[in-house]
Write a structure and sequence with these properties.
With about 120 residues, the protein is an alpha/beta fold. The chain has helices at about 15-25, 75-85, and strands spanning about 5-10, 30-35, 40, 50-55, 70, 90-95, 105-110, 115-120. It is globular and about 45 Å long.
């Protein structure tokens, strides 16, 4: 079955700060992309993987309400949570089991968004 989610735009207020936060949390570079007059941070993905970006938007704003995006922290969940706090984020819910679906922590990112860090095992 194809992915139901195909892309995600994460609103930010400070692109450089968000690039540092998400690169540290994901454990790999979030690259600065763009062209004349625009820039965004491209989340690492390949092939048919779900992708996304960080962007400064006029029509959207970081929020603790709304959809909860789950980021893959397989094999490094504790390190991802530590990186989130080291980069100016805040743990809203510490790592906890989510039944047969693994483990997650919910953090506020450096911009004010609520995101989940997920791993199938701890």
């Amino acid at each position: 079955m194809p992915n139901r989610i195909v892309w995600v735009d994460i609103p930010v207020t400070d692109l450089d700060r968000a690039l540092a936060f998400y690169s540290a949390v994901l454990g790999e570079p979030v690259t600065r992309e763009g062209g004349p007059g625009f820039a965004f941070g491209l989340l690492p993905h390949a092939g048919e993987d779900v992708g996304g970006c960080l962007y400064v938007a006029d029509d959207n704003a970081p929020s603790l309400q709304g959809p909860l995006i789950y980021l893959n922290a397989t094999g490094r969940l504790d390190a991802a949570v530590a990186a989130a706090t080291a980069q100016g984020g805040q743990v809203l819910q510490a790592v906890h089991p989510i039944g047969p679906h693994g483990f997650r922590a919910i953090v506020r990112d450096s911009e004010g968004n609520r995101v989940a860090l997920h791993a199938p095992t701890r």
